[in-house]
Amino acid sequence: xxxxxxxxxVNSMAxxxxxxxxxxxxxxxxxxxxxxxxxxxxxxxxxxLELKTxxxxxxxxxxxFADEVTRVAREVGTEGRxxx
Length: 84
Fold this sequence. Notes:
The protein has one domain. Helix 1 (2-32) runs parallel beside helix 2 (46-79). It is 77% helix and 0% strand. The mean pLDDT is 93. The chain is mainly α. The N and C termini lie far apart (75 Å). The chain contains 2 helices and no strands.
């Protein structure tokens, strides 16, 4: 009846939120360990979507920064100076 439908809906929402939080935790844990290859890929709306977008942007920016640091380190390492 109505009570079962209500509890089923609440359980579904809770499971959805749990999945979103687990995916966010997986990605942020990977970033904390230096793995910038992961992105949050769960469907999200509202505040969770904002969090997803912010974290994915952060991962992209950290990855670009790491690539630039690697490039500069190679340039300094091979030429002994920076800037050619």
